[in-house]
Amino acid sequence: MPEGKIVKALSGFYYVQSGDARYQCRGRGVFRKNKINPLVGDEVLFEESNPGEGYILDVKPRKNELVRPPIANIDQAVIVVSAAEPDFSALLLDRFLVLVESKGIDPVIFITKMDTIKEGKLEGIQQYEEDYKKIGYPVQMLSTKQTDDFDQAKDFFKDKISVIAGQSGVGKSSILNAFNPLLSLETNVISESLGRGKHTTRHVELIEINGGLVADTPGFSSLDFNDLELEDLPACFPEMRERMEHCKFRGCMHNKEPKCAVKEAVGKEEIPTYRYEHYLQFFEEIQNRKPRY
């Protein structure tokens, strides 16, 4: 029975890539009955009914999945933040990082528009770059005029399934268009009045970039922590995760507990204060979340 990967979903059809061939498939009725919804990125078993057409018979177990965009088996999320227009926000970046970490996906950070930074702001951005690299995150700075930056950034996509995430107007579509000019994804000029861009995508598709696959729909349209439990939050901060075992109390939440290795590290400036402040902010947000019934 042939195997393949769903690379596109549109109007009830699933386009399965198997070797060099692509098959337009439908899901078997048993999926609806068992409430299994095949997703782009799924590894599937299928049968060919006519040349180039077929039916999906089984979906292999997933290592992870996202709801928005609906996609499975993601290796990495490229989080795009801009140095300016819109201004760099470590709080927003940390929110994306926590969401990505909570799904078991490896984050990569792209900081765009480095050539548009106003005087005096460059040092601050470079400090953030240093901080995030120290935590262990790959960081790539991108200047619109530097093709070398894009050549280096391209390497991150090789042999990986990636999603791209970031607020509107940071240049997500422009990055993909630079890597693969055939895409000509819809890019809209930032609306001056709103300070944000617009994006309209009608289906999910994995597109080839430098020997890897990238979802053409931005990830994480919702930035709330509805699926994240409070006790799982500390593990979404790598620098806290690696110090947990040194806290006096097992299950330490690094908040009000004494002899906490994380708070000690913040005091010694081994963990940036802003990261810890963001952690406390997210902690409070999850703690005050209204219960779901």
Automatic annotation (TrEMBL):
Which molecular function term from Gene Ontology is one that the record holds? Answer: metal ion binding
Q: Name one GO biological process term.
A: ribosomal small subunit biogenesis
Q: Where does GTP bind?
A: T112, K113, M114, D115, G166, Q167, S168, G169, V170, G171, K172, S173, S174
EC assignment: the record states 3.6.1.-
> What enzyme category does the UniProt record give?
hydrolase
Localization recorded for this chain is: Cytoplasm
What CDD domains does the entry give?
Answer: S1_YloQ_GTPase, YjeQ_EngC
Domain CP-type G, chain residue ranges per copy? 63-223
Q: List residues of the EngC GTPase domain.
A: 72-221
Cofactor annotation: Zn(2+)
InterPro entries reported for this sequence: G_CP_dom (IPR030378), NA-bd_OB-fold (IPR012340), P-loop_NTPase (IPR027417), Ribosome_biogen_GTPase_RsgA (IPR004881), RsgA_GTPase_dom (IPR010914), RsgA_N (IPR031944)
One cellular-component annotation, GO: cytoplasm
The UniProt keyword set, sorted, is:
Cytoplasm, GTP-binding, Hydrolase, Metal-binding, Nucleotide-binding, Ribosome biogenesis, RNA-binding, rRNA-binding, Zinc
In the UniProt record, does the keyword Zinc occur?
Answer: yes
For the ligand (Zn(2+)), the binding residues are C247, C252, H254, C260
What remark does the entry make about the cofactor? Answer: Binds 1 zinc ion per subunit.
Biological function: One of several proteins that assist in the late maturation steps of the functional core of the 30S ribosomal subunit. Helps release RbfA from mature subunits. May play a role in the assembly of ribosomal proteins into the subunit. Circularly permuted GTPase that catalyzes slow GTP hydrolysis, GTPase activity is stimulated by the 30S ribosomal subunit.
Q: Which family does it belong to?
A: Belongs to the TRAFAC class YlqF/YawG GTPase family. RsgA subfamily.
Query: What does the record note on quaternary structure?
Result: Monomer. Associates with 30S ribosomal subunit, binds 16S rRNA.
Q: Which protein is depicted? A: Small ribosomal subunit biogenesis GTPase RsgA
Native source species = Aquibacillus koreensis
List the taxonomic lineage: Bacteria, Bacillati, Bacillota, Bacilli, Bacillales
